[in-house]
UniProtKB/TrEMBL annotation:
GO molecular function terms attached to this record: 4 iron, 4 sulfur cluster binding; metal ion binding; tRNA-2-methylthio-N(6)-dimethylallyladenosine(37) synthase activity
Function (record text): Catalyzes the methylthiolation of N6-(dimethylallyl)adenosine (i(6)A), leading to the formation of 2-methylthio-N6-(dimethylallyl)adenosine (ms(2)i(6)A) at position 37 in tRNAs that read codons beginning with uridine.
UniProt-listed Enzyme Commission number(s): 2.8.4.3
Phylogenetic lineage: Bacteria, Bacillati, Actinomycetota, Actinomycetes, Micromonosporales
Subunit structure: Monomer.
Entry keyword set: 4Fe-4S, Cytoplasm, Iron, Iron-sulfur, Metal-binding, S-adenosyl-L-methionine, Transferase, tRNA processing
SMART domains xrefs: Elp3 (SM00729)
Species of the source: Micromonospora profundi
Name by which UniProt lists this protein: tRNA-2-methylthio-N(6)-dimethylallyladenosine synthase
Binding site for [4Fe-4S] cluster 1: C19, C56, C90
Ranges where the MTTase N-terminal domain occurs: 10-127
Co-factor remark: Binds 2 [4Fe-4S] clusters. One cluster is coordinated with 3 cysteines and an exchangeable S-adenosyl-L-methionine.
Gene: miaB
Family per record: Belongs to the methylthiotransferase family. MiaB subfamily.
């Protein structure tokens, strides 16, 4: 008995909160459910047969938000008793059985280590007419071995590791996602090749700390080697990665970035604070000098590199002098963009109970000063590109104003957002011919702090297989390859996972 019409497949909807790791996990949840015979519910459908919440535990009020959302679904479920509600992700890993105690209309609770069990848990809950709660303490199967329904035709996430061995005091990842588990290089490269075979042009290698990749199988240069190996994959045009960690960053990675043509000259390296005292309190074991030293080497090897970062303002105990050090590093590093966060307590983290929590207005005021400094620099850095011709990978829906302005949008190789005009020199619009996933070369005419505009005619347009796939409405799917966890010292072949905290 289902809410779907008799004989038609059950429908599902996944609601995702949090970081890229969760977004990628949601692609796996969709892939798994579709393999089990479910079909995605239309967006406007407010009574899908299964609603999955893929939750995030980063914000202080994340649980209020979840219980609020579950509360909204209660009357819907009362009317449609066959609807099933499942809660997964970091908050589920943290709150476990508490979720069905607080919201007894929830059918399934699953954690970050057992995404693969979701279809079985839904089935069991339906059969037994009782809630199923299954949380594992550690990973039993690498999530990348699961079938995945990819959201983008031209860009794909590929996890290289899950979990984190660091103990930053503001972060919940180690307690919810566990110790770092590295995936075998051959598995990663197989997944990359499978994506490229489907037409994908760009991959982003994902890990909480990509620079410690290899720690499990005893090769501290494994990440640089992986980047170089990606350089040998025909048809792969862009390789990115996130996130590196200044503590583990080695020079061979800079050399691999500079010497591998398809690796993009963009680096997102979390700073978090420019003050060594705050870094110490955060338990981040590099100092600002080391951070700036890495940037200097990156710029020497790749003068066109765009460097972006994450910064937390108002960490417990942060003084005005500490904050000034952050501004100093921002000025010296000349970031092309920065994700700035006001410190907020994350329940379950050591920093949440530290002395010296700052009043909201102090944090707010510093935050505003930080944003002003960051924007001044990112704007100046962006202006340097006016007059340059850049390669843009055309995206879907990156520009809210595009429809009104007749522009399309995409990312340059260095990661910058570019809005470009689509009129050919004769005035004819190319908008119908340029598809998401195609490559356009265009000349920058205007710079803003957060984007670039190119208002002349595109210099060149290349139709790609990713563009063909977008036009045909096909999205890449990577089948599950069941290999289990990598063993120590062993390499060889097949696909990968994610972890999940917005800032590293
Ligand atoms: S912030 Fe990043 S490096 Fe630090 S513990 Fe969390 S996941 Fe690990």
């Amino acid at each position: 008995m289902t809410t779907a019409a008799a004989g038609s497949p059950r429908t599902y909807q996944v609601r995702t909160y949090g970081c890229q790791m969760n977004v990628h996990d949601s692609e796996r949840i969709s892939g798994l459910l579709e393999q089990a015979g479910y079909v995605r519910a239309p967006q406007a459908d407010d009574t899908p047969d299964v609603v999955v919440f893929n939750t995030c535990a980063v914000r202080e009020n994340a649980d209020n938000r979840l219980y609020g959302n579950l509360g909204h679904l209660r009357p819907v479920k009362d009317k449609h008793p066959d609807m099933q509600i499942a809660v997964g992700g970091c908050l589920a890993q943290k709150d476990r059985g508490e979720i069905v105690r607080k919201a007894p209309w929830v059918d399934v609770v699953f954690g970050t280590h057992n995404i693969g069990s979701l279809p079985v848990l839904l089935e069991r809950a339906r059969h037994n007419a009782a809630a199923e709660v299954e949380i594992l303490e550690s990973l039993d199967v690498f999530p990348s071995t699961l079938p995945t329904r990819r959201e983008s035709t031209y860009a794909g996430w590929v996890s290289i590791s899950v979990g984190c061995n660091n103990t930053c005091t503001f972060c919940i990842v180690p307690s919810l996602r566990g110790k770092e588990k590295d995936r075998r290089p051959g598995d990663i490269l197989s997944e990359v090749r499978a994506l490229v075979d489907e037409g994908v042009l760009e991959v982003t290698l994902l890990g909480q700390n990509v620079n410690s990749y290899g720690v499990e199988f005893g090769d501290r240069y494994a990440f640089g080697k992986l980047l170089r190996a990606c350089g040998d994959i025909d048809g792969l045009e862009r390789v990115r990665f996130t996130s590196p960690h200044p503590k583990d960053f080695t020079d061979d990675v800079i050399a691999a970035m500079a010497e591998t043509p398809n690796v993009c000259h963009s680096l997102h390296m979390p700073l978090q604070s420019g003050s060594d005292d705050v870094l110490r309190a955060m338990r981040r074991s590099y100092r600002s000098e080391r951070y700036l030293g890495i940037i200097e080497k990156v710029r020497a090897a790749m003068p066109d590199a765009a460097i972006t970062t994450d910064i937390i303002v108002g960490f417990p105990g942060e003084t005005e002098a500490d904050f000034q050090r952050t501004l100093d590093v921002v000025r010296e590093a000349r970031f092309s963009s920065a994700f700035t966060f006001q410190y907020s307590k994350r329940p379950g983290t050591p920093a949440a109970t530290m002395d010296g929590q700052l009043p909201k207005q102090v944090v707010q005021e510093r935050y505003e000063r930080l944003i002003a400094t960051v924007e001044e620099i990112t704007w100046a850095e962006n202006k340097r590109l006016v007059g340059e011709t850049v390669e843009v990978l055309v995206a879907v829906g990156e520009g809210r104003k595009d429809e009104r302005t007749g522009r399309m949008s995409g990312r340059a190789r260095d990661g910058r957002l570019v809005h470009f005009a689509t009129e050919a020199p004769g005035g004819e619009s190319l908008a119908g011919q340029i598809r998401p996933g195609d490559i356009v070369h265009t000349t920058i005419t205007y710079a803003a702090p957060h984007h670039l505009n190119a208002d002349g005619a595109p210099v060149a347009h290349r139709r790609t297989r990713a563009g063909d796939a977008a036009e045909a409405g096909r999205s890449p799917r990577t089948p599950g390859v069941l290999l289990g966890l990598p063993t120590l010292g062993a390499p060889p072949v097949a696909p990968a996972p994610a972890a999940g905290c917005a800032t590293h």
